[in-house]
Amino acid sequence: MSCQIPKERIDETIAFHGHSCPGLAIGIRAAELALRELDNPRDTEIVAVVETDMCGVDAIQFLTGATMGKGNLIHRDHGKMAFSFFRRETGRGFRAMLNPAARGGMDDEMAELMSKSGDGTATDADRARLAELRSEVQRRFMELPLEEMFTVTPVDQGAPRPPKILQSLACEHCGEKTMESRTRRFAGRTLCIPCFRLVEQKM
Known about the structure:
Oligomer: single chain
CATH class of the largest domain: Alpha Beta
Strand order of the largest sheet: 2-1-3-4-5
Helix content: 25-40%
Mean pLDDT: 93
Order of helices and strands: HHEHEEEHHHEEEEEH
Radius of gyration: 21 Å
Number of strands: 9
Low-confidence stretches: none
């Protein structure tokens, strides 16, 4: 079954992100899955944990309403095309990992052409073929059943804790106010992370 999000919402998502691409399509489908499985939670009730910083995160933010500013969009820099979603009211959650088969076996050719494009050796034919492949994989992402698009596993530990407002402390090196949980102690002084890195030789 193809994507069930209305075309106007998809167009708005593309406008928010700035362009249409396969990565954005992954995020659109992940958001669709989250809203379906968690019964359309309010934007303050859903929590999204993303393991990548790619284009699709914008779609998840736009379509679910989870944002870093509200503390319910959490980035874990694992470099994986994986997304976990929770509903705070019920504690219900799941992790969705992009199924490699969703790419329809186009990975190797795309990777080779992207490498050529990156190092400046791509021909006009290479660039045209890359655009064709990107268009094809994007179409597949938008048309595949969600069950074929992602491998889904339940998450039992519940949603991450809501954010807390913490005290701000002055860094004793630069003087800038820093959230207490992001300070470091070194040689008896309270430092912000950048100043800590200046003096801690192992960083």
